[in-house]
Write a structure and sequence with these properties.
Largest sheet: 6 strands, antiparallel
Radius of gyration: 28 Å
Distance between the termini: 37 Å
Shape: flat
Strand content: 5-15%
Length: 685
C-alpha cells in the first residue's frame, strides 16, 4: 500500500508539473493572469505532493521492505536507523527523487515571493522551474523508478513496477546494505549540500531566462536573485568541502582531492558561479558585463545538469559515481536542448544587453574583476577538457585515456596563484579609473608587511620556490584584507567614539556584502594555506612492523603495540591496531588505524588513525596484517603539514557567506519599468 501511494503521487506530481507548464504557456499566449496564477498554484502543489513520495520511500527503507530493488540495494537489517534514512540518497533511484524534492522546495519558495514589481517574470520563472522538475521526475518514472519490485518468472528474476503476467513476488530476507564508503558522517551531509547547491542555481537561471524573454535590460533580475545565488554558492562550497573531508577520512590515500572526474563535475559550476558573483557587482555598479553575466549563469545551469549527468549516466568510472544507467541519453538531450534555447534567447537580446559604460583603466576594479573572471574560466577550460578527454579519446580511438592529477595541478596552479593575487589587489582599486600610483599608495603598507613572510619561511627551512611564492601570496592577501577592514574600523571608532568591536559589528551590518566578501576572502586564504602545506610538503612511508618495532617520519616515531580482531553487532568485522606516537622522545598518545569489513556488502573500509593539530596531521593506515599480531602488520604513514587550515578556513568562508547573504531591505525605491511586460490583470500573490 505504501509503495502504491508513493508511486501514485510520483505520477501525480509529474502530471501537475506538466499542467503547470501548459498553464504558463497558455497564460503567456492569452496574456491571462488567471492562467498564470493557475500555473503558480500548480508549482506550489509540487512540493507537498513529492513530499508524500519521499515519505513513502523512507517508510519502505525503515521497515526493511527488501522486495523493492532500491531498498534491497541500499539497506540491510544490520544498518542503524540514521543510515537507513540517509540511504534515501545512497542509490540512483532515491537520489533522483531527493534531487526533485529539493528542486520543488526551492522553486516553490521563490514562487511565494511578492511579484507586484516583477509580474512579467512570473510565468517564465514557473515555466523554467517546472520544465527542469518535470525532466527529473520523468527519469524517476520511466528509467529509475524506486518502486520497482522483484518478481519471479518462468525465465528468471525481473524488476518491474507492476506484476508481470504469471509472476510471483520475491521477498529477500536481507538487503545488500549501503556501500561502506557511504557510511560516514561526511557522506550523510555531503550529497544533500551538493544537491542544494545544484538546485539553488536553477532560480537565478530561471530569472535570467525570464529577463531575456521579456526584454528587461535593467539589473532587477540580479538584485532579486543575489541572495539565491549566494545560498547556492554556499551550499555548493559546503558540499565540496565535506566531500574533501569524506575522502580524507575514508578513501585511505592521505589526501582530500584527487581530481576525480565526478569531483571536477561538481567543481565546475562552482567556478562559473563564483565568477558570476563577482561580475554581477560590475553590472549593478556600472551597468557593464550584462552579456557576460547572462553567459555565466547559462553555463552554470548547463554545468549543473552536466555534472548530474556525469554522476548518474555511468559514462565515467569513479568512486563517487552511480552504476551504469539508461538515463545518459536523456540527460545529454536535455542539456543540448536547454543550452541551445538559452543561447538563442541570448543572441536574440544581444543588442539590448549592450554595456552602459566602458573600461577606462586597466587597473580599475572593473578590469581586475574581468581578469578575475577570465582566470576562473581558464580553470574551467582545463577541468572540462580533462573530464571529457577520456570520452573523446574512447570515441575516436576505442581506448579511454585517463587524465591524471599532475595535468590539472600544473595547468591550474598558476591560475589559482593569479586569483589569490587579485584577491589582494582588486578590493583596493577604484571604480572607473585607477593608476599605478593610486593603487600603489593603497597597497604599499600591507605589501611591505607581506614581504616579511619570505625571510620567515626561509628561516623555517622552506626552499621550494613555488612554496615560498604561495606563502607570500597568502600573507599578502590576508594583510591587504585585514588592513582594509582594520582601517575602516579605526576610522569609524574615531568618528563615533564607539569601541572597536562595536565599530566592527556595525560596519558589517551597514555593508554586509562588502565585509562578508572580505571574510570569505580570508577563509579562502586560510584554505590556501592548507593546500600549500599538503601539496608541497606531504611526506609518506610504509613499513611492516612486528609488535614493539617502530618507523620514523618527519620527526615522529610510530611504534606498533598490538592488533585486535573482533566482530560488532552491526555486522562488521574490525581489525584494529594500537600504535604509540612519539615526537622528540615525548609520548603524544596512541592511534587506532583499522580496517572494517562489512558482511552485508562484502566490502572493507579503511579508517585512518589521525593525530591532528593546526601544525600538521600524522595520518596512519593499516594496510595489511597477519592473523597473529606478533607476525607483523603493514602500515602506511603520512605527514600532512597545515592540512587543518583547510577545514578551519572553510568555517570562516561559511561565516562570510552568511554575513553577505543575511537579509536586508531592498534598496530600490520604486519599480523600473520593463521594456516588454506581460499585460496581465489582477492582484499578484
Amino acid at each position: 500500500m505504501v509503495a502504491n501511494i508513493g508511486l501514485g503521487f510520483l505520477v501525480l506530481v509529474f502530471l501537475v508539473s506538466l499542467y503547470g507548464i501548459i498553464a504558463s504557456i497558455v497564460g503567456l499566449r492569452k496574456k491571462s493572469f488567471a492562467w498564470v496564477e493557475s500555473a503558480r498554484l500548480a508549482m506550489l502543489l509540487t512540493f507537498p505532493l513529492i513530499s508524500v513520495v519521499v515519505v513513502s520511500l523512507l517508510i519502505l527503507l525503515l521497515t526493511n521492505r527488501y522486495e523493492y530493488s532500491f531498498v534491497y540495494g541500499v539497506t540491510s537489517r544490520s544498518m542503524p536507523l540514521y543510515l537507513k534514512v540517509t540511504a534515501l540518497w545512497g542509490g540512483q533511484a532515491g537520489s533522483l527523487i531527493f534531487w526533485s524534492w529539493l528542486l520543488a522546495a526551492f522553486t516553490t519558495a521563490v514562487t511565494l515571493r511578492q511579484w507586484d514589481r516583477d509580474r512579467e517574470f512570473l510565468p517564465w520563472v514557473i515555466l523554467t522551474g517546472l520544465v527542469t522538475l518535470a525532466f527529473f521526475l520523468s527519469l524517476s518514472i520511466f528509467f529509475e523508478n524506486p518502486f520497482n519490485r522483484f518478481w519471479g518468472t518462468a525465465t528468471g528474476e525481473v524488476e518491474a513496477v507492476f506484476q508481470p503476467q504469471g509472476a510471483i513476488p520475491l521477498i529477500p530476507q536481507d538487503g545488500r546494505g549501503l556501500n561502506p564508503l557511504l557510511r560516514h558522517p561526511g557522506m550523510i551531509i555531503h550529497p544533500p549540500m551538493l544537491y542544494l547547491g545544484f538546485v539553488s542555481f536553477v532560480v537565478p537561471y530561471a530569472f535570467a531566462i525570464a529577463t531575456l524573454v521579456t526584454g528587461r535590460t535593467d539589473d532587477r533580475w540580479i538584485r532579486i536573485t543575489r541572495r539565491w545565488t549566494l545560498v547556492a554558492w554556499l551550499f555548493l562550497s559546503l558540499g565540496l568541502v565535506l566531500g574533501g573531508r569524506w575522502a580524507y577520512d575514508v578513501l585511505g590515500w592521505g589526501g582530500y582531492w584527487g581530481w576525480d572526474p565526478v569531483e571536477i563535475a561538481a567543481f565546475m559550476p562552482w567556478l562559473t558561479g563564483t565568477a558570476f558573483l563577482h561580475s554581477v557587482m560590475i553590472q549593478e555598479k556600472r551597468g557593464m558585463f550584462k552579456r557576460w553575466n547572462m553567459i555565466l549563469i547559462i553555463v552554470t545551469y548547463a554545468l549543473v545538469i552536466f555534472g548530474t549527468f556525469l554522476t548518474r549516466s555511468g559514462v565515467l568510472s569513479s568512486v563517487h559515481a552511480f552504476a551504469q544507467s539508461a538515463i545518459g541519453p536523456m540527460f545529454f538531450a536535455f542539456i543540448g536542448v536547454t543550452f541551445v534555447i538559452s543561447l538563442s534567447l541570448l543572441l536574440y537580446r544581444w543588442a539590448d544587453l549592450a554595456d552602459e559604460g566602458v573600461l577606462y583603466s586597466l587597473l580599475s576594479r572593473e578590469s581586475l574583476f574581468l581578469l578575475n573572471n577570465l582566470l576562473f574560466i581558464g580553470i574551467l577550460i582545463v577541468c572540462f577538457s580533462g573530464v571529457i578527454f577520456p570520452l573523446v579519446s574512447e570515441l575516436l580511438t576505442g581506448q579511454k585515456v585517463t587524465v591524471g592529477p599532475p595535468f590539472y595541478e600544473r595547468a591550474t596552479g598558476p591560475l589559482f596563484a593569479g586569483l589569490l593575487l587579485l584577491m589582494g589587489i582588486a578590493p583596493l582599486s577604484a571604480w572607473g579609473h585607477s593608476t599605478v600610483k593610486t593603487l600603489g599608495k593603497a597597497l604599499w603598507k600591507p605589501a611591505l608587511v607581506s614581504l616579511l613572510a619570505i625571510p620567515l619561511v626561509l628561516f623555517l627551512g622552506v626552499r621550494n620556490g613555488w612554496a615560498i611564492l604561495g606563502f607570500w601570496l597568502v600573507v599578502f592577501t590576508s594583510s591587504v584584507t585585514l588592513y582594509e577592514y582594520g582601517r575602516a574600523v579605526l576610522a569609524r571608532a574615531k568618528r563615533t567614539g564607539e569601541s572597536l568591536w562595536t565599530s566592527l559589528w556595525r560596519l558589517a551590518q551597514k555593508n554586509r556584502r562588502r565585509y562578508g566578501g572580505y571574510t570569505i576572502h580570508l577563509g579562502i586564504v586560510l584554505m590556501a594555506l592548507g593546500v600549500i602545506g599538503i601539496e608541497m610538503f606531504q611526506s609518506e612511508t610504509q613499513a611492516t612492523l612486528r609488535a614493539g618495532e617502530s618507523v620514523q617520519l618527519a620527526g615522529y616515531t610510530v611504534t606498533f603495540r598490538q592488533l585486535d580482531e573482533f566482530d560488532l553487532p552491526d555486522g562488521r568485522n574490525v581489525a584494529r591496531a594500537t600504535i604509540d606516537v612519539y615526537r622528540g622522545g615525548r609520548y603524544l598518545g596512541e592511534l587506532h588505524p583499522r580496517r572494517d569489513y562489512y558482511w552485508d556488502a562484502n566490502q572493507p573500509m579503511t579508517i585512518p588513525g589521525t593525530r591532528s593539530t593546526m601544525e600538521d596531521d600524522l595520518y596512519v593506515l593499516l594496510v595489511d596484517w597477519q592473523p597473529i599480531s606478533s607476525q607483523g602488520a603493514t602500515f602506511k604513514v603520512f605527514h600532512n603539514p597545515l592540512v587543518n587550515w583547510m577545514w578551519f578556513g572553510s568555517f570562516v568562508l561559511i561565516l562570510g557567506t552568511l554575513i553577505a547573504a543575511w537579509p536586508d531591505r531592498d534598496p530600490e525605491p520604486q519599480r523600473i519599468v520593463a521594456s516588454s511586460a506581460l499585460p496581465v490583470h489582477g492582484r499578484a500573490s
